[in-house]
């Protein structure tokens, strides 16, 4: 997924290069003024599409959220290394290769691919759109091929949002600093998000004076590409100025009603062809539901467009699963002039989406041209469309007939072009916070159909598996499930009120909250919303989770001696390593006895590689198994009906204490 921190807005947005695809020519980088000679464009190609892998190294590990290393690789961690392309000697400003907090640069560590020429690493500050101020620069002298560290003396102060650039002297024949070019596809180890949004142009060290401002607005010497340089900054930052919280703030999602928010709902310069387009930069920032679509039908187009919601599935870097597909047909009422069209989806058929799902557009192979008005940078120049509003898009020669809902597809095809594109299209969106009740989707096998929930005051401990085998979107659904279960009860310390606690486990156990941490429903729901749900281990130590429950959750920390205890294990597989399976089963039986008096429930999560975990789940669960196990694929994890079914069992067990 492309998730960039754009220095223009000092906010998380999707930044991209201005690359234009022509079916008969190679990848072409163009500027807003290059509308003439294809020959000129082809010549410029050799200079434009070079990605530089540079990173600045920071001394020591800063506490809090400030990193000690800024630069390559973009996702953090790892060392600088050789990358395949040495590139030319034009300047490259990586505008989303930013420092996330105020601090000082101590040194630069980089990998040199060519020993001949000096290079310069620089730090820039945004003044306004396209205008940057040079804060400082450091010479990386010519030396041997390999990894090198160059100290910065005196240490150079930087501000949050400052970004890294690489440039050279006019006489330099090659880049020297190892780098990678996204559009050459030369490094399969790097993902799309490992590259930086880069200004690339014919500027050199003798033009760059520290403290001066430079206008890099589009001209015939400036282009926009995706690059990464093998260079890191050793950085000592001020945690008080660090960016706090996740890139996507779920608290703001309730005010979000369309995705993307920057869609231009008007006629754009072109309709495009009928190839499939997956906008990997057009991301849903929150969990929620799609209630419909708005789009601008391009004048004269009468075909059917299909909008897909896709989810990254891997392991290949461009491998996605199609979750939903919606047809946008033409009818006579729309006429030939085009215009704004709204397509509503009935509530019972709302499309469930997860954070980081993306939008795609595709057509039937029988429709020769596109339907939804859109723009790429070359044509966008005539319409004053900012390049920062466009999304990195995978474009392949595939059609609606090739895509089935539920199917997984590798977009890394021989026909693949990676292009920036903006569609006059947006999804109508409703946020789904963790305790938001969605209507059930499909046949829920009778789970929880308007059944009463007995209120006999259970003490419930959730044990949630967050090992690597559990998909991220499934973990999101688990928090919805937990919250919906809580919503079925009156919460508090009273005899007929329920109490809740939770831990998560993989190879280790992480305590989340105890039975007496919160005695209000809102407090418990807030605890669930803040649950640690990162995938964090390759083992599933159910035995450790049950041992921790016996030692820290039951018979202490708010557990009530006269109320029924319920342990709810939520997992996608068996205890692993398998030698610990008997220990896990023995601990489950221990919890049923004095002084714990617990019933053990197992909720199975979908996992395509699971090898019949049902037997082990039955062994963990209290007898009778049919009353204490919930096995996929009879339900969707986040469905309210499942939560009601589990809550009903919990309430019944609490009222029928042994």
Describe the structure.
Pfam families: VWA. InterPro entries: ECM_Assembly_Org, VWF_A, vWFA_dom_sf. This is VWFA domain-containing protein. The protein is about 15% helix and about 30% strand. It contains nine helices and 36 strands. The strands form seven sheets. The protein has an eight-stranded antiparallel β-sheet with strand order 13-16-14-7-12-9-10-15, with no helix packed on it. An eight-stranded antiparallel β-sheet has the order 26-29-27-19-25-21-22-28. Strands 33-32-31-34-35-36 form a six-stranded mixed β-sheet, sandwiched between helices. Helix 3 runs antiparallel to helix 4 (about 520-530) and helix 3 (about 470-485) packs across helix 9 (about 640-655). It is an alpha+beta fold.
- Overall 3D shape: globular
The overall average pLDDT, rounded, is: 78
Query: Rg to the nearest angstrom?
Result: 28 Å
Unreliable stretches: 1-64, 244-251, 433-449
User: What is the first-to-last residue Cα distance?
Assistant: 51 Å
Task: Please describe the biggest sheet, giving its number of strands, its sense, and whether it closes into a barrel.
Answer: 8 strands, antiparallel
Instruction: Count every beta strand, where a strand is a DSSP E run of 2 or more residues.
Output: 36
What structural class do helix, strand and pairing data support? alpha+beta
| Spatial strand order of the main sheet | 13-16-14-7-12-9-10-15
Helix content: 10-25%
Figure out the total of helices.
9
Strand portion: 25-35%
Jot down its keywords.
globular, 658 residues, 14% helix, 8-stranded antiparallel beta sheet
